[in-house]
């Protein structure tokens, strides 16, 4: 759990060191005062990424050249990120480390209004989301994805330049097949494990008569992708049959970058058939199911951050959700425009200044 956070030059926030509760942390105040920025700083320090933007300069205060976030855990381990317009520098206990070594040490799950795009948005949004979530608990997967992106770019370059008969292309192609084979298996296993929680949680918190399932549709159109050697054979065969097509297009049209994840509520694709309220509920259930999966896989409790809880749920469901987290004993950060009657630390954010209320 995060014991304290320090930030400077981060968005509109005034530089400050803040001690946090190991239970509930309520961040409240009027709109556009910095509530979400405070929570974003916590998430960014935990994960090395923002839930609002991919652009570094948007997180740096316009009067500054860089921003810093620092967190200390209960076990006294500390992590820091120095953010510049064109790079990020990561530190653990004062020593600089790579991003791949930073990710996964502090586990965090966020839930924000824009997350409804996980259901409504295009497939790349879902692939990016699940790539990160799997990487939090599986470093092997993280390295596979990083390698895959590099190999995909090289393979595409050879295809575009019509150098598919080059010996180096064959080497890249074999590596491409191997990476796809392993990633398919890990993705499928993750979805299968996540499904053990999704339906039960949806029934418990929202509607006991509805069923929720996440389906993993891979580019091979195969249900069973657990055998890596078999995957290699199928992928190799597919790429040979489609080689002329790839050459004509000038890029790789078959691979794990074409996979899709589909949320099915009562057997129907939620992207097309679920209401706006149901989509919000599906995403929330996805996030708390990830909490439970993380606990089981790595025996650690993740930090949970929820922005603007009042806009998502009515008072009844809001109270159910708060009770759920109380039972789980998870460190939570909630933002709201009103003072929720919960036991924990309360922070009033006004004009970028974070003030603890006593």
UniProtKB/TrEMBL annotation:
Give the keywords, sorted. Answer: ATP-binding, Cytoplasm, DNA damage, DNA repair, DNA replication, DNA-binding, Nucleotide-binding, SOS response
InterPro entries of this UniProt entry? DNA-binding_RecF, DNA-binding_RecF_CS, P-loop_NTPase, RecF/RecN/SMC_N, RecF_2
Q: Which PROSITE patterns match?
A: RECF_1
Task: Tell whether Transport is among the UniProt keywords.
Answer: no
* Residue ranges constituting the RecF/RecN/SMC N-terminal domain according to the UniProt record: 1-338
Q: Which residues form a coiled coil?
A: none
Key word Metal-binding present in the record?
no
**Example of a GO biological process term:** SOS response
Task: Name the residues that bind ATP.
Answer: 29-36
Protein function: The RecF protein is involved in DNA metabolism; it is required for DNA replication and normal SOS inducibility. RecF binds preferentially to single-stranded, linear DNA. It also seems to bind ATP.
Record-linked NCBIfam families: recf
Write down what this protein is called.
DNA replication and repair protein RecF
The protein's organism comes out as Streptobacillus felis
Q: Give the gene that encodes this protein.
A: recF
């Amino acid at each position: 759990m995060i014991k304290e956070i320090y930030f400077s030059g981060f968005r509109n926030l005034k530089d400050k060191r803040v001690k946090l509760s190991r239970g509930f942390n309520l961040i409240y105040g009027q709109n556009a005062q910095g509530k979400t920025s405070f929570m974003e700083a916590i998430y960014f320090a935990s994960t090395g990424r923002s839930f609002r933007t991919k652009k570094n300069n948007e997180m740096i205060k316009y009067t500054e050249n860089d921003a810093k976030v620092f967190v200390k855990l209960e076990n006294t381990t500390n992590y820091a990120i120095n953010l510049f317009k064109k790079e990020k520098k990561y530190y653990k206990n004062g020593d600089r480390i790579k991003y791949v070594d930073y990710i996964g040490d502090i586990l965090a799950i966020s839930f924000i209004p824009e997350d409804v795009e996980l259901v409504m948005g295009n497939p790349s949004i879902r692939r990016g989301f699940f790539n990160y979530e799997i990487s939090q608990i599986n470093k092997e997967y993280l390295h596979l994805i990083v390698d895959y992106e590099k190999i995909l770019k090289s393979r595409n370059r050879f295809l575009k330049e019509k150098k598919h008969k080059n010996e180096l292309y064959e080497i890249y192609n074999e590596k491409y097949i191997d990476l796809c084979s392993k990633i398919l298996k890990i993705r499928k296993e993750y979805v299968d494990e996540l499904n053990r929680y999704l339906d039960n949680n949806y029934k418990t918190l929202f509607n006991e008569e509805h069923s929720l399932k996440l389906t993993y549709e891979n580019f091979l159109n195969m249900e069973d992708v657990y055998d890596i050697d078999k995957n290699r054979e199928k992928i190799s065969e597919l790429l040979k049959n489609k080689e002329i097509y790839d050459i004509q297009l000038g890029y790789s049209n078959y691979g794990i970058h074409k996979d899709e994840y589909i949320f099915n509520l009562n057997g129907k694709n939620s992207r097309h058939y679920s209401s706006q309220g149901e989509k919000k509920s599906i995403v929330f259930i996805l996030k708390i199911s990830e909490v439970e999966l993380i606990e089981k896989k790595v025996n650690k409790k993740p930090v949970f951050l929820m922005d603007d809880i009042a806009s998502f749920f009515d008072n009844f469901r809001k109270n159910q959700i708060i009770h759920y987290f109380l039972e789980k004993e998870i460190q939570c950060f909630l933002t709201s425009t009103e003072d929720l009657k919960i036991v924990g630390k309360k922070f009033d954010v006004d004009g970028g200044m974070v003030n603890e209320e006593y």
